[in-house]
Amino acid sequence: xxxxxxxxxxxxxxxxxxxxxxxxxxxxxxxxxxxxxxxxxxxxxxxxxxxxxxxxxxxxxxxxxxxxxxxxxxxxxxxxxxxxxxxxxxxxxxxxxxxxxxxxxxxxxxxxxxxxxxxxxxxxxxxxxxxxxxxxxxxxxxxxxxxxxxxxxxxxxxxxxxxxxxxxxxxxxxxxxxxxxxxxxxxxxxxxxxxxxxxxxxxxxxxxxxxxxxxxx
Amino acid sequence: xxxxxxxxxxxxxxxxxxxxxxxxxxxxxxxxxxxxxxxxxxxxxxxxxxxxxxxxxxxxxxxxxxxxxxxxxxxxxxxxxxxxxxxxxxxxxxxxxxxxxxxxxxxxxxxxxxxxxxxxxxxxxxxxxxxxxxxxxxxxxxxxxxxxxxxxxxxxxxxxxxxxxxxxxxxxxxxxxxxxxxxxxxxxxxxxxxxxxxxxxxxxxxxxxxxxxxxxxxxxxxxxxxxxxxxxxxxxxxxxxxxxxxxxxxxxxxxxxxxxxxxxxxxxxxxxxxxxxxxxxxxxxxxxxxxxxxxxxxxxxxxxxxxxxxxxxxxxxxxxxxxxxxxxxxxxxxxxxxxxxxxxxxxxxxxxxxxxxxxxxxxxxxxxxxxxxxxxxxxxxxxxxxxxxxxxxxxxxxxxxxxxxxxxxxxxxxxxxxxxxxxxxxxxxxxxxxxxxxxxxxxxxxxxxxxxxxxxxxxxxxxxxxxxxxxxxxxxxxxxxxxxxxxxxxxxxxxxxxxxxxxxxxxxxxxxxxxxxxxxxxxxxxxxxxxxxxxxxxxxxxxxxxxxxxxxxxxxx
Lengths: 217, 557
Prior knowledge:
By secondary structure, chain A is an alpha/beta fold. Chain A has 6 helices and 9 strands.
């Protein structure tokens, strides 16, 4: 399920101002970091890859995932996973139903689907949490459920939109370690957006600005 | 069920469904008014009651609108952010759900010479052993009609103000203005009112148009010799002679012109008020002294409005179970279920039909509104300013001006008298309210939920059915309850499109009101009020039950 994510001359302009200019490939298992202050176009780049770019932006270039040109595909057909700043768990569903929502429809049968959810919870050290209300979980637990939910959808690439910035200092390193190790295990191509040098350092990959310039940490 | 291509057309279809009937109905009323050498207009001008009727329509409409707006603004200005304000917010939905006819009948039972107030004061304070011969109800000046209109329109305008307030940054503006030395009322007038009123404008116009032309309230509370112009139009329409039809059409057109003139007058008053407000701001309005007095006035008028409605409804309830109840007695000598038992078969049949019509009109409205809002979301459509005017069109154009034309069309097509035709006519009035009720919550929904769903591979349709709709269960059910209440309360569309053969609780209650059977009136009006109330109760309880184990879905306000 893994593959290379290529941004081919991806250029995004807001009016006449270029906000994103990237021409690169992210290999399976690699975490590319895009760094810059807020408002510098980091999240715009992610929106373009997700397919949710606001019409006010003008986009050129191509986005290729696993050899498939996804530039004009609707978001739900791109197979690009996304982790937000907040966990964005669905508040009306149980923890288990949140995870089951992400399971591809090709996985059939109640028991099979339930088993997949249980296995994912066990991997996140949350065995037995399936029937819980997400609102009753701690911040760290919610962050782990959010990641497992994203992975269960079997994405071909993963985008991380400052996913650690809302966590407090102690939790931050722990969740970051968990997420990064899961990415390496699954061998996904990932792009991390952050304004935090420590995140970029921990990611261990290339670090660039939204306009493609290398960042020296 | 909803595919992408069709969905894109939902807003246009919806606007056509609102504008179409109004335009066609107006045309259908216009033609008979001018046909036959404008015979209708000549008959209208020959009617001796014309000028008093027209004057009544203007005075009651303008007075009711000004009073309703004044009370609403007074409540918001002096009580916003207090505990009393929170209490009013809770009272609002139940008060808003009371149909106009039930409110009017309740008020009539309260203030009539033999009503509850007279009974409570007699004989010890008034000395009356028999109901006095006073023309309180149906007074020639339309005072009780105005009172009834105010009691119904204050809750509506207050709700509209509540919806608009979050966008006006009240807390900070009041703080800043007060820290600059202004009193509370002055701070509100100068810093909040301009942007609040710009959002209240359309609802206020709707209140003005409605107040000038309300038929069922005028029939129950309004003057009779002459009646208000709209009530008289309906009387002419019931005339079996053809002459009545053209006179009615001419009267309807005159009523439309009167509403337009009143709206222009109102817009002129807005201009003057704006200049006055700028002057006051430049003069450094402080007015600390008026604050306590106006606060008292706000509480007094607010309680009077709510009290009149609540006590009126209570007297309907008491009458419906009253045994012998002689005049100065405050309460009946005995209570009995006889009225209810005897009327049960009729009540059940009428109630079921009322509910069926309401459920059909509301269900269709809800589907259309959801399709519009979802299309807006998926295709990034932003509604043009004109769309809001079309939405308000059925509320701004007087019902008596376009329903007669619509009735003629229904008659020709053979749809007249069928309950489905009545439901279709209700849709025109239900849909705007469902939209206004649902749109803010729908648009405020956290869009990241949708992006998260899509990124997990869920199609937009799945995101809608599995995430958005369930998460918006509470506002969707509230909008449905609003729609139900609007449909249950419809009098004129039911009467005209139903051709008198579709009997709902509302048409029955109004028809009974001219007779003297207070017990039966009480039963019909009470049931008419209970149906919407039940809807609001369900809209409150169902989400609480479904999401009782989901803390993230708890009400946060």
